[in-house]
Design brief:
Among the domains are: 80 residues, no CATH class; 129 residues, Lysozyme (Orthogonal Bundle), CATH 1.10.530. Helix content is 47%, strand content 3%. The chain has 12 helices and 4 strands; from the N terminus they run αααααααααββααββα. The chain starts with a helix and ends in a 19-residue tail after the last helix.
Length: 315
């Protein structure tokens, strides 16, 4: 009898607990979420609410897009390498102004040059090496590569006039224009073509040699660096060619051989001998160059080919 009574009491306790639980849920009406916080604490005013129904495009639209924080929405992308090969027409069209400018510099006909470029391309399957539109070869028969397309264009013109001497004009145009244009030529040649040459140094040496590009007899020879031949001051066909020759000389005979300081350049460019018979840079020349450096070290070196067009001759 005692066992049956105990069993009945246990069932009564279970039933009471169930009734109390139902009453508690219905009365309080609070739902506990998976994180253990009541839903009423995560209302619309909460900054933690995430609009789950927002579209992918809406979510991405809220991001500041850069290549660095690009969002991958469809899994990792397969990298595809696309090789872009430009033909002769692309280069001749894109660099038409540069080619025309240097055709005038070298005293050759622009149309003849374009025809020659197309012919060279045709002989080489029409494909252009990205910096060598003239297909110039090195000593091993390989197509040369230059630091820029402009460099390749200039070296092509040197090759063209050597192969076609009868097509080169012998007309000489003495310069009587501004010093600023000469400075701009030096800046362009050193920043776009012979980039191993320090622009400030090239400007300063030229200024020391030509009185800041104002000495008349030198300008009339289109010679701003004092280059001499057996017959005296070298005479160039135009100021553009004369300045180009000066910068090319610095590139190949000085900077190209590791002479890149004023003292090292001066030892070869303007040498004197000390009391012990040692060759050194002229102190007077070094002083002139260093003084000019104070003017040019803060110059604006941002010159493009458009800044030279139409300013040749007596600009």
């Amino acid at each position: 009898m005692e066992t049956k009574k105990a069993s009945k009491k246990a069932w009564k306790h279970v039933i009471c607990c169930l009734i109390l639980l139902v009453i508690f849920v219905m009365t309080i009406g609070v739902h506990i979420n998976a994180e253990g916080y009541p839903d009423e604490e995560l209302g619309e005013s909460s900054s933690d609410v995430v609009p789950l129904r927002a579209s992918v495009s809406e979510l991405v639209a809220d991001l500041s897009y850069t290549e660095e924080n690009e969002v991958e929405l469809a899994g990792p992308k397969e990298e595809v390498t696309v090789e872009i090969i430009y033909d002769a027409n692309y280069y001749i069209t894109t660099y038409a102004e540069t080619i025309e400018f240097f055709a005038d510099v070298f005293g050759v006909d622009y149309e003849d040059v374009v025809a020659d470029l197309y012919k060279r391309a045709e002989n080489n399957d029409g494909k252009i090496e990205s910096t060598n539109i003239g297909y110039l070869l090195n000593s091993k028969g390989k197509v040369k590569k230059y630091s820029s397309v402009e460099y390749g264009i200039v070296e092509y013109f040197y090759d063209y006039v050597e192969r076609n001497p009868k097509k080169v004009s012998k007309k000489r145009d003495p310069y009587s224009g501004s010093a600023k244009y000469v400075e701009n030529l030096i800046i362009y040649y050193t920043t776009h073509i012979y980039t191993n040459v320090d622009t400030s140094t090239a400007l300063s040496i030229g200024a020391a040699e030509s009185g800041y590009y104002k000495v008349g007899y030198m300008l009339r020879c289109n010679n701003i660096h004092g280059g001499m031949s057996s017959s005296g001051l070298i005479k160039y066909k135009n100021i553009e060619y004369g300045v180009l020759s000066y910068i090319r000389m610095l590139s190949k005979n000085y900077y190209g051989k590791g002479l890149d300081t004023i003292s090292e350049i001066g030892r070869k460019y303007c040498p004197v001998y000390d009391d012990f018979g040692n060759k050194t840079a002229s102190p007077h020349w070094k002083k002139l160059v260093n003084t000019a450096m104070k003017k040019y070290k803060n110059y604006d070196f941002n010159i493009e080919i458009e800044g030279l067009l139409g300013k040749s001759g007596n600009a």
